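R.M. (postdoc): so does anyone remember the format we settled on? I'll just put the structure tokens first.
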């Protein structure tokens, strides 16, 4: 319980400190590298407080000169800081619109270029994806959790199609990533933080150049199959069904 209380105290302190810093920096330039440094300091501080031993696999596949649509599984609140620390890119997330209403923290998200999305409102959701495509063109890598919420079990929830429509719209490469271990650190509904090892794994890049709307199902199936293989937990993806039928 002491670990959990310490993590909460640190999270509040660094959110206020980093959030204030981001808002000040953004007054001069919303594209400043200082914003990425503050984001990573925030994330690294929370991981240390929680006792998370962060590792990476396959990070050499990420080209620092390229920008991507990163598609990840989502188990825990700790997925976001793990990705921010592990992936050497100027990352921005698409996040629930309600988070942007939190004083200081939410204001900083908006100033830093993170993208609010209200999936219940189709019109504003479309605008959010247009904004995400513009962010990529300006030099940011966008992270999306296609499950649209944290999974309550190790098996991933069904994928929604927004991430794949974004990759098609932006004609940018898509990179599947897996966050393995946060389910044991702090799953949905947990009241305590359990220190442990977390590994951020990188799959194989999926080229989305020349893709069209007809490719969205293929992209979703291929991405899900890669993430399932990386976390070692299989659901009912087309690739897994074919695997089982072949046995």
């Amino acid at each position: 319980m002491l670990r959990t209380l310490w993590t909460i105290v640190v999270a509040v302190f660094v959110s206020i400190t980093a959030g204030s810093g981001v808002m000040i920096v953004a007054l001069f330039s919303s594209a400043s590298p200082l914003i990425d440094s503050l984001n990573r300091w925030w994330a690294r501080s929370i991981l240390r407080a929680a006792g998370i031993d962060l590792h990476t696999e396959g990070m050499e596949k990420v080209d620092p000169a390229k920008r991507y649509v990163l598609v990840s599984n989502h188990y825990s609140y700790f997925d976001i800081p793990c990705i921010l620390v592990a992936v050497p890119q100027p990352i921005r997330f698409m996040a629930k619109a309600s988070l942007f209403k939190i004083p200081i923290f939410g204001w900083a998200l908006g100033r830093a270029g993170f993208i609010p999305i209200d999936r219940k409102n189709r019109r504003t959701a479309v605008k959010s994806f247009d904004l995400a495509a513009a962010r990529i063109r300006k030099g940011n890598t966008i992270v999306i959790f296609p499950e649209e919420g944290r999974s309550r079990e190790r098996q991933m929830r069904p994928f929604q199609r927004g991430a794949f429509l974004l990759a098609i719209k932006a004609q940018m490469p898509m990179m599947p990533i897996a966050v393995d271990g946060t389910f044991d650190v702090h799953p949905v509904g947990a009241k305590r933080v359990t220190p442990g090892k977390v590994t951020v794994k990188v799959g194989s890049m999926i080229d989305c150049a020349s893709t069209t709307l007809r490719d969205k199902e293929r992209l979703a199936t291929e991405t899900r199959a890669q993430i399932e293989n990386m976390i070692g937990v299989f659901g009912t993806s087309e690739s897994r069904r074919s695997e089982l039928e072949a046995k």
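R.M.: ...and that's the designed sequence above, right after the tokens. Also worth knowing: The two ends are 46 Å apart (CA to CA). The CA atoms of residues 19 and 105 lie 5 Å apart.
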